[in-house]
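Ticket #4471: complex job returned nothing on first submit. Input attached below:
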Amino acid sequence: MEATAEKAEEKKYVDAGIQKGLDALTPEKVEKAINRVFRAETGARLKAYEEICVRCGLCADGCHYYLSHEGDPAYAPVGKVKQTLWKLLKKRGRITPEELERVALVAYTECNLCRRCAMYCPLGIDTAYIITVVRRLCHLLGITPRYIQDTAHSHSVTMNQMWVKEDEWIDSLLWQEEEAREEIPTLRIPLDKEGADIMYSVIAPEPKFQPQLIYYAAVILNECGMDWTMPSMPGWDNSDMAMFTGDVELMGRLKRSHFERAQKLRVKRVVMGECGHAFRAVYDVGNRWLGWRDFPVEVVHAIDFYWQMLQEGRLKVKKKFERPVTLHDPCNIVRGRGLHEKARDLVRAFCSNFTEMHPNREHNYCCCAGGGVINCGPPYKKVRVEGNSIKADQLKATGAEVVIAPCHNCHSGLKDIIEAYDVGMELSFFSEIIYECMEKPNAVEG
Amino acid sequence: MIGQSSWDWQPGKRRIQEAAACSSDVVWMEEPVASPDGERLAVVVNLEDAVFGLCVNGELLEETFEKIWGLGFSPDGRMTAIVSREMEWTVAVEGVPWETTFGFVWNLSFSRSGDRIGAAVQQEMSYGVAVDGVPWPELFDNASNFALSADGLHSAAVVQTVSMGAADIEAFQKGCYSIAVDAKAWDRSFVNVWSPVFDPEGSRVAAQSRQSLYDYTVVVDGTPWDQTFASVWEPAFHPKSGAVVAPVRSGGKWGMAENGTLVWPARYSQLWHQAFDESGATLAAIAAPSYGRFTVAVNDRPWENSFSVMTDLAMSPDGRHIGALGKEEDDWTVIVDDRPWPGRYDMIYPISVSPDGGHAAVRAERNGRFLIVLDGKEYGETFERAWDPIFNPEGDKVLIRGIQEGTCFRIVAGVEDF
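Support reply: We reran it on our side without changes. The output follows.
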């Protein structure tokens, strides 16, 4: 199940983030980190997974990498565990730098932590958890790919993942408010409105590259008559690449910033934009690391929020989106949170020509860019695009012109798949379609 | 708040202003803000496309701006807002802008008395702090986490001391960030440094820091503690000895360290928001003695009552009374000295403690109406909107500011009226 010689031959890029760490390692350091992670930081769950796996290989068909590589066992989830966890447990401090490099590459660039394979394991082993533990070890060893490490650095300084400075964030909101007033003169993006019902939070790529998504959200929130706000100070970014690098201490710091900002504003709930991993970080991982069993402020994903608005009659459909659409089910909000039927209710409400992709819902294939993989940067684009030809086939089979992907990482991953395999499909967030098709009672005509 | 002794403390209810009234025609208005003494109601109004004004007690102030945000009042009762004209930003005090303008202004902060106003500023893509309109003489590639000392004479911020290229993780990990106090950066830079905190006199500064990707500690006036930890939270100065205490993570649990040495053993699932009383004899913090259960620990002794969420620690000056807000399911309550108040609310705002420490009061929300609650007893009137209650200097009266049926009132109630 080792990587093939051909693949090793292709692997010419030297990742400064990984190489620098490898250069500084000694067997003692490796042994110490392994002991810390496997003895002090993990417990029965990891041990049980390690001991009960019968190597049946039924997880293999759950993985898009495996399916896209013609059944190469190196890409089966169990194959990835063999190349990482089992190797580490077996060799411990005697593991070679070359083997450690392979551990890091498998953990960070060949697994999206999508948890699809966990559904096919007859023993319920969550391989994503195992790979997360391996990433934690890689973080402690300092062998994290450069670009995702830089994202974590950004998080640590700015509390957002895109090095957005404090003034740039506020300025982006004021700018989008001004733009939106051309369409809806009374529209506001209320900053720091204490006691609002909702704090709307986003991930940093929105102010950095996609400010129109803030515009659309503002229109939807305003036209639905919501009492909402956005914070002017850090805590506005709900994303968390530290969760994916294995830097759990930083992850906790980020999630604290997010929740305490909401608590300070005294909002009843946080509505998050269309992002999957951020939702996972907030409702499942970061909150629990901080000691909360649940989230300290209710968190609602955009799909859930739009669905609620539709049910309450606040969000009204003016016209249907006519072009043929299909829906991509993001792992963190479907397998992780069960929002698939609500997403379909939205699609059917706003779109007249919907075709399911197959498999779908919790069985959907991963986009191959989540789990921090896209943040590992351009050097690994080929790995993830080649690792998801199955997705291209799945998309093509729908015959749709537009794929709705309510997650930023899914967008980025699918964009590359669509381009690389000439799928001929456009991408959309729900907010874009809703904005286009909803009633806007306060908008100026024309 | 400052100057309460000169406020009108005559018991009774007085109408201040119609909340939605302004002397000029307006297109729309934002949420009103009440002054600390309850005598004024201010609101941002939109007059026409890209023209905004400030309306105080129904009267439109002369100056108008292209944009206004961050309307509020300083502790001494001056109305402040962040305003913009022709792409330049500044702070307007009582509607009059500072003479100095900037590329951007944000994060208004006040000295304890309110006599000094500070803000984070950006000028030609360099960053720093301005106090009363005077910017730091030296600005930086980036500045954030701005803090003002209690007397307002000193300001500090996290600053970038070394320029970095894109994705230059090597340079980052050598340390590119420090704290600048009054525009002068500490000699040492760090991988990270967060949230500077002044001592009560404003002469010393402590901050959280990361020495490497793995080693966290506290830095005091530029010098890190000798010990490092898996993580740390905000430090606080002992009011008498000047010792610095901070929650630290060790062995997967949180404890309290003083000058780098654990003084509360690391046994908590979480520990943060610590505070001293005026003498320094009492140190309290929000703590989770077991996973998922939060309470208050006083001198390392947790209360018996615990909640799934706990926030907003408050303490009387003498440390004899300590309060916090607790949440279970969707219901919030106030807990004072380990005794929960009977009322349950949809939201509760920070606790106000009377100067003598004998009473605690909060603004709370239930079913969309606001109430004022003192020592667990609700005042008889409810409001569409309200602001935090304020005690008189003697601690026997409470100023209530709220809007009822579109009109803002100020009510002075005796503590016996609850």
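Chain B touches chain A through 53 residues (CB under 8 Å). Closing as resolved unless it happens again.
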